[in-house]
Amino acid sequence: KKGKDSLSAQGKRRYDRKQSGYGGQTKPVFHKKAKTTKKIVLKLQCQSCKHYSQRAIKRCKHFEIGGDKKGKGTSLF
């Protein structure tokens, strides 16, 4: 378990000086992100009128276009 932080440490003194007075929070407060994946969005362009349309597909951590599909009972090598 972590011990109590010292009030006289240089970083704490600097932080308290910066926070004092009006102006609210001065340093970024880290908030853990809830999502670990992003939705994959394909930008498709019309060949005739050059109009873009976006198609969202499922969430995934790794996305590869044109990669070899994993077959049943086959190894990757």
From TrEMBL:
Single GO molecular function: structural constituent of ribosome
SUPFAM superfamilies in the cross-refs: Zn-binding ribosomal proteins (SSF57829)
Signal peptide annotation: none
Keyword terms: Ribonucleoprotein, Ribosomal protein
Domain of life assignment: Eukaryota
Gene Ontology CC annotation, any one: ribonucleoprotein complex
Pfam families according to UniProt: Ribosomal_L44
Positions of the UniProt region annotated as Disordered: 1-30
Gene3D superfamilies for this protein: 3.10.450.80
Entry similarity comment: Belongs to the eukaryotic ribosomal protein eL42 family.
Protein name: 60S ribosomal protein L44
Organism encoding this protein: Lolium perenne
